[in-house]
Structure formats: C-alpha cells, structure tokens
Amino acid sequence: MARYGDYTRDPCPWVILNDTGGAFAMGAIGSGIWHFVKGAKNSPKGERIIGAVTAVKARAPVLGGNFAVWGGLFSTFDCTLKGIRQKEDPWNLIASGFLTGGVLAARGGIGASARSAAFGAFALALIEGISIAASKFFAPPPMIQMPDLQPPNANVSGT
C-alpha cells in the first residue's frame, strides 16, 4: 500500500496491475506452502510428495486468484478515490476496504455485503492506525534548537 507522499510509485492505472499481480503472487506462494504441507499430511505414506505437489497444483492458483481479485478491487477503489478527492490520506484506504468488502460479498445479499464492508473498513482502519502509531513511535526525536547564549545587547557596538 502506498504511503502518503510516496512519489516513487507508478501512476494509478499501473498501480492497479502491479497490486493485482503482487496479490496473486502472495496468495499463490502462501497457499502453495499451506497446501504442500496439507497435501503431504493427508497422503498415504509412500506418496506424500506426489500428494503434496498435486494439492499445490490444484489449490494454489485458486487462492492466488482470490487474492488477486481482492487486491485489484482494492487498488481500483483506492485510485478512484484519490482521483475524486484529490487527496492521499488514510480515509481513502479505509473507504477502499469498505467498498471492496461490500462488493465481494454482494452475492450474499444486503446484510452480508454490509457486514463484509464494515469488516473491511474496520480491518483497514486498524492497519492504518497501527501504521501511523508505529511511524510516530519509531520516528527520530525532533531536533532541539539550542537557545542563543549571547546576551540580547551583545551585538550593539559603541557606547
């Protein structure tokens, strides 16, 4: 997720593609590890590696795709809100989590969509709050300016 004032990131249309691909990779790798262990555990004794690889091939792309959909929607909403509001602040991310959660649960009806949207907003608010608190906690202390030790009339010449 972009930090405020981070001008090293690509412009919005490219960020959406980048975040979608990154989310797919993260989901596929994490799911690959999970399903490898699960496949090996649930396979008969002589076929653990084959069972693990089969489980990874069957399930890792599915979860990776789910992550990609979430990441793409989230990034799309974030870019849209940045364009509409002309601001880059935590409210964009919280609203993007709200909209993403709501859209992904829309098939379950209004109630499920509202609950998922509220959870998405809460989760992003929690993440943003922790991020802001951590950045303030780990920020270097402000520079203390030493007072001028000369008397106030030291620069006056003459008398």
TrEMBL record:
Q: What is this protein called?
A: Tim17/Tim22/Tim23/Pmp24 family-domain-containing protein
- Which family, according to UniProt? Belongs to the Tim17/Tim22/Tim23 family.
MF terms from GO for this chain are: protein transmembrane transporter activity
A family per Pfam: Tim17
**So where does this one cross the membrane?**
91-110, 116-139
Gene Ontology biological process terms from the UniProt entry: protein import into mitochondrial matrix
Primary location recorded for the protein, binned into one broad class: mitochondrion
Membrane-protein topology? Multi-pass membrane protein
Q: Where in the cell is it found?
A: Mitochondrion inner membrane
Assigned keywords, A-Z? Membrane, Mitochondrion, Mitochondrion inner membrane, Protein transport, Translocation, Transmembrane, Transmembrane helix, Transport
Q: Gene Ontology cellular component?
A: TIM23 mitochondrial import inner membrane translocase complex
